[in-house]
Amino acid sequence: MSGAGLTITGRAAPHSHAGSSVDRIMLQVCLALVPATVFGLYLFGWPALLLWVITCASAVATEALCLLLQDKPLSRLRDSSALLTGWLLALTLPPWAPWWIGAGGAAFAIAVGKQLYGGVGQNIFNPAMLARVALLVSFPVHMTTWVQPDLLSSGAPGPWAALDIVFGGGIPDGVTGPTILGEMKTAQGAGTVSELAAGSFNWLDSLTGSTAGSLGETSELLVLLGGLWLLALRIISWHIPVAMLGTTVLLAAIFHRADPAHYASPLLHLTSGGIMLGAFFIATDYVTSPSSKTGQLIFGAGCAAVLFAIRAWGGFPEGVGFAVLFMNAFTPLLDRYCKPRAYGRNLRGRPTVARTPARKVR
Amino acid sequence: MRKIHDFHGGIHPVENKHQSLHTPIRDAGIPAELTLPLSQHIGAPATPLVAVGERVLKGQLVAEATGLVSAALHAPTSGTVTAIEPRPIAHPSGLPAPCLVIASDGEDAWCELPPPCSFETLERPELLARIRAAGIAGMGGAGFPAAVKLGLKPGTQVETLIINGTECEPYITADDILMRERAAQIVRGAQILAHLVAPAETVIGIEDNKPEAIAAMCAAAEGTGIEIAVFPTKYPSGGEKQLIELLTGKQVPSGGLPMDVGVVCQNVGTAAAVADAVEHGRPLISRITTVTGAAVDEPQNFEVLLGTPMSHLLALAGYRAADNPRLVMGGPMMGFTVPDPGVPIVKTTNCILAPSAQELPAPPPAQACIRCGLCAEACPASLLPQQLYWFARGREFEKAEAHNLFDCIECGACSYVCPSNIPLVQYYRAAKAEVLQMRRDAQKAEHSRQRFEARQERLEREEAEKEARRAARKQAAEEKARRAADAGSGEADPVQAAIERAQARKAAQAAGAASEENPLQKLEKTVVTTRERLEKAEAKLAQARSEGADHIAALETGVEKTRAKLAAAEQALQDYQAQQTPAEPAPAGDAAQAAIQKAMAARAAQANKSPLEKARDNLEKLEARLAKSEARLAESRAAGEEEKIVEALASSVERLQEKVAAARAELAAEES
């Protein structure tokens, strides 16, 4: 809101409005996350609930603090964008991570990932992914300690035990285990990927989500449902998700067919890790993705390419965060080169040729 | 069945059209006072033809079109002209504008109208003249003078004549009800227009949310060869460019006109007015206006005299001012807020919208843009509204122009869908206004620059001429001095010197004269060029006449003006010649002659002198020159003149001193 900018006063057309609002869009995205979140909390119990609450609260508190420091009205909290960022980050964390992972990560996401750039609408990189990647690089052990889902078992920690896990003693022995992508990484080294399908990889479990993984990412099915709901509401368009999932399937299929011992099947890729959350909720972030449809297709395909490269040949088992951040950097470029053809102009932006020479307009 | 194309973007706002369609068109009657703004159209304001206090009859021409792009005005009823002064009008700026005010006498007495006739009997220019005389301006909202749009250049072939019955803007039903009730008149208007522009096809385009209008139009167009094209309701399909794409699949080039793709587009209201004007000779003095919104009890359509105050119509419709936070002329998408309900209905007033506060609530404060891209999806011009917004807000107008700012039709679809409630269109309007202002300023600056450069050039030229004359003089002087010195040594040829001197003077004069034409030459040149221009203009006029073009009137006035100019120029030339003739002899040649004679005389005189006398004379002359030169040198040193000048003077003094010394020696030799 610089003083030198063009200022607009008075009321002018249009006088009517569709009634959409940023507040409502953000809330609807949050709502779309509810099924996957509820399932994750149910799956991973009290510690996960604590972590989710802490992360969301930290995001909102950091946003409030930043607004106060900048003398901006606190009413801007109403747009729920901070809540959404915190929520998305929480869903990508290991479910029993210590409190400071959630609190610090969310604070980093809001303060550095968003407000430092000028607040909502101004950031180049997806704040939640920026925080996740920063945490992963800084605290690799905490960020890769996964618990086995222990549905309703007697061993599930109660509220008090959960407090101890999140705020103190950490994860007790014997409940941790690898994610399927972690196993895949190991198997790739040994050339035994094809045996995964016969062994620990069960596509149905993986799809429904009763597997080890991030807090809200395990159930690809529920994430997909939320994503489809957003599509139906026209809050997101199909271009980025379809390009991202389609390219992943294509790449996985090609490599799996050529060398099944080292490359997992498309099914494993699609049903594991954060790919669904990434395709429907993270890569589609308005602020950090291209606005033209062509740009979105390229963006989605690019995300998938980077993601596949990391999963297949990288040092990390999962790479949604890196992939999205990498493509975020290309968003301004894609927007620049994927302009739509304006009415009455050709693809190069020149006026279309008149049948009869245009009358000179002075 | 015609293939209906689609255009990019568009929105589906709530239509809200049914409210004003319960009753037929109602006559709004004659208000006590009518206010006719002189500018109800795009182009130059009309020029009043009546004086305050004059009685006018219904249909009488009260203000004529000024120039080509303008429209005439007629008295909507009989009465007395009470004022010609600025009054508040319905304009986005809210500023008063010149108006002609008529107090009606209630008699509604018509003036004499041209006899009714059928259009088939009229020639093209005559048809066009009738339409122009009726003062018809596009009734869809833009108000472009209809006759200008229809005045085609000779040899142009119109492929499609489109009659626009789309009325895509919510709330407005003026065209809808006109099509329902006066379909036959619209079809006749369309036939007249088709007769005028001779298109390959004539299409009347209507959105599918007007089934009654479609039925009525189909019935009226039966057997006329005019096609009724129905297409899905989507805002802004009634926009000229969008409608052309819908019906023909062609896009009007950016910055171009529909004619560039062989299309002429007119509103159904305009077609009806054309039928009235041509068949009955009736000028445009009334129109259909929708009065609607939750703040009126009986939303409906009125046939209303132009100049009627909006408040008159609102009262007839049961207006509750308390429920109406803002009054809008036009629809909710492109209409503008009217500051005062007393402003008059004009040719382009298709709707008065009086919404309640709940109906069209004031927008919440704008939030930051989240780059959702909904605006780009809605934009019917396929622009990038969000980029335009960044550029407009950051005053990066060049980038905004590069992103086709001026292709924006200001339909408001982007603002309508914006979840951040950013008043995008207002930013574009403001940016356009600033760019246009900057262009005007730049043009002014360029003009001043050119003037400055021309002046600078003139000054330099004059300086150069002076310099050339000075150099010629100097050369002549040196030559003279050399000759004199030579003469001193006995080889001088004063005649030759004088001739050369005279030649040098002539050369100096010629250098000056080259650009400083004498007034006579200038006048002659003016006469010649004006005559050439007149000949050209007359040829053009003749051609236009033979082709039956529509701009004959403009050409005629041009020829008249040029002829007057030529007469003036010829008169000026004659006057000048009359003044100058007695003192005409060429001064330059004469001076040379005189100098030669003088030199010859001097030579003759010298020939009689003894060598001693010659030497003494020579010495005296040289000494006098030396004294003069020394004085000049001292003067310029004292004045602190430029070093070069001082040096030059010093060297000439030195040379003279040498010559004096030589002359002295010579004299001494003679004396001995």
Automatic annotation (TrEMBL), chain A:
Q: Does the keyword Transport apply?
A: yes
Q: Where are the transmembrane segments?
A: 25-44, 50-69, 99-117, 129-147, 238-255, 267-287
GO annotation, biological process = electron transport chain; transmembrane transport
Q: Which residues form a coiled coil?
A: none
Protein's name according to its UniProt entry: Ion-translocating oxidoreductase complex subunit D
Question: Which organism is this entry from?
Answer: Mangrovimicrobium sediminis
PANTHER family, alphabetized? ELECTRON TRANSPORT COMPLEX PROTEIN RNFD, ION-TRANSLOCATING OXIDOREDUCTASE COMPLEX SUBUNIT D
Query: What is the documented function of this protein?
Result: Part of a membrane-bound complex that couples electron transfer with translocation of ions across the membrane.
Give the family per the record. Answer: Belongs to the NqrB/RnfD family.
From TrEMBL, chain B:
Give the Pfam families listed for this entry: Complex1_51K, Fer4_7, RnfC_N, SLBB
Composition-biased stretches (Low complexity): 496-514
Location in the cell reads: Cell inner membrane
Q: Does the keyword DNA damage apply?
A: no
Q: Which cofactor does it need?
A: [4Fe-4S] cluster
What are the record keywords, sorted? 4Fe-4S, Cell inner membrane, Cell membrane, Coiled coil, Electron transport, Iron, Iron-sulfur, Membrane, Metal-binding, Repeat, Translocase, Transport
GO molecular function, a single term: 4 iron, 4 sulfur cluster binding
Main location class: membrane
Question: What SUPFAM superfamilies does UniProt report for this protein, alphabetically?
Answer: alpha-helical ferredoxin, Nqo1 FMN-binding domain-like
Into which EC class is this enzyme placed? Answer: translocase
Q: Tell me if Oxidoreductase is a UniProt keyword of this record.
A: no
Cofactor: bound how, per the entry note?
Answer: Binds 2 [4Fe-4S] clusters per subunit.
Binding annotation for [4Fe-4S] cluster 2: C379, C408, C411, C414
Q: Which residues form a coiled coil?
A: 612-666
Residues the record lists as binding [4Fe-4S] cluster 1 = C369, C372, C375, C418
Segments passing through the bilayer: none
**Example GO BP:** electron transport chain
> What kind of membrane protein is this, topologically?
Peripheral membrane protein
Q: Where is the 4Fe-4S ferredoxin-type domain?
A: 359-389, 399-428
Q: List the GO terms this entry assigns under cellular component, sorted alphabetically.
A: plasma membrane
According to the UniProt entry, where is the signal peptide?
A: none
Q: Which PANTHER family match?
A: ION-TRANSLOCATING OXIDOREDUCTASE COMPLEX SUBUNIT C
Known role = Part of a membrane-bound complex that couples electron transfer with translocation of ions across the membrane.
Q: What is this protein called?
A: Ion-translocating oxidoreductase complex subunit C
- Gene name? rsxC
